[in-house]
Predict the 3D structure of the following.
Amino acid sequence: MARQSPDLAAAMREIGAATEAALDRLLPRPEGAIARLDEAMRYACLGGGKRLRAVLCVASADLFGVPRTQSLRAAAAIEMLHAYSLAHDDLPCMDDDDMRRGRPSLHRAFDEAMAVLAGDALQTQAFAVLADAETHAEAEVRLALVAGLAQASGARGMVGGQVIDIAAEQRSAAGQPLDMAEISHLQALKTGALIRFSAEAGAILGRAGSAERSALRDYAADLGLAFQIADDILDREGSAEELGKAVGKDAAAGKATFVGLLGLEGARARAAELTSSAQARLASFGPAAGILQALAEFVITRRS
Amino acid sequence: MARQSPDLAAAMREIGAATEAALDRLLPRPEGAIARLDEAMRYACLGGGKRLRAVLCVASADLFGVPRTQSLRAAAAIEMLHAYSLAHDDLPCMDDDDMRRGRPSLHRAFDEAMAVLAGDALQTQAFAVLADAETHAEAEVRLALVAGLAQASGARGMVGGQVIDIAAEQRSAAGQPLDMAEISHLQALKTGALIRFSAEAGAILGRAGSAERSALRDYAADLGLAFQIADDILDREGSAEELGKAVGKDAAAGKATFVGLLGLEGARARAAELTSSAQARLASFGPAAGILQALAEFVITRRS
């Protein structure tokens, strides 16, 4: 976590801890015949990650004075959705990853069936949390959150992106890796859609106008792409120890990456451009958006 | 489909065809890089099944004069949720079933990764459909549907039931099959929760009072248990050809079944009692509930 401003570091720690507490409250307690499922859901969600999506959601909601009791519920729902996607992506029939966040991935810590089922139940729970009256008093707001999360994570969002990613590996194996437009489209769906929604969720909770909602969404789109490019750079340069997962896997598989297409320097320059663009989208919010400004810098300077 | 009253047969055909058409409209059209996912989602949902849940939802909604345009959307969402659960249950790491509805199961027709992902996206799409304003003009009604579906299908509903079912197989292998209370609890979660919600969804759409809502919910609870007992009887007595899937598998695995616990005659008697009980719950609706009355009879007399 190099070169991170003290304010951002404190905000990330604070929101991270509060999100962890919210997840602990909102996930079922291990109980009776289903205890192992509850434990698997908790293992997948608790005790790890940068909580980028939670920070985006809460810091965006803060701009509109949304009570943290509300924004942390939305943040927890988004983190549940994200955790389910990681659990399923790590399965042997998908990316077959044994490690995640520095410890065994869900299907290694439990088993494959439990990884599928815990992921399934986490998706369900994310929608249950958003639909609950405690998330916002107005039904229309909760419905906008439910619809937004569904849009971001379904066939034309995150899951669609994973399908393109799997097809891309097959194309790489056949010597036809994705080009720049295709890999950008992949990212916009696979990770970008949920990252965009994370910032937008804060605006929805704050009943923000369409200009503010679009600004936050566009900011997160730039940030999400910068994040992915930085991921490719880390995959090339980082160590497995720092990242808590295998490195160099994409390049070894001949998969198209932003580094492969742009070169290391080109990728760094593009990520920096996107960070500037993301920051410029926040202009109308002034100094109140300091955390979001710093977050855009953080995603390209982080070491893990 | 023996001994089915002409009215019920016609209603099931009509609602089945209308649900099929609604699913066709509400599922993404195969398009671009994601076409294979769209095709897998369609394969999982279209062209098969008795549409028991759709019939429960639509026939319950009919009691309150809910427009079919609305009840068919809810029915389609429930059928998407059901189809996702079948796709995941059939996976090699779960029940490892190669056949479903007389044709290859989803992971055999496509592959495992696609079966996981199409299932995931079907769950998402079910919530998206319920949250959409076309399902009902009132936001509170849509939210009640979203919350109800989540409750029925999550860790304390369908997914929890599947976890208990897997644990039950391990217990059977260790010579400790479930007793009657445990197997009834399993059924109430694994298949019962979504069946209960199917009838309740009709009442929610119709803004029914709590007495009517409870009556439909209790009716469906009885019907769902009768359905499962009938399934166990068919698994013992039916042919693979009629059922479109392997038979005798549960008994061969030493799994506890209602037939195993009650004997064939005992199971038949219990299913008949439950059918009578289900029918009695509908008394206050009078002749308007004729289809639901006949449906309770159907679930224990069907041959597949």
Observations:
- The first strand of chain B starts at residue 99 and ends at 100.
- Chain B has 14 helices and two strands.
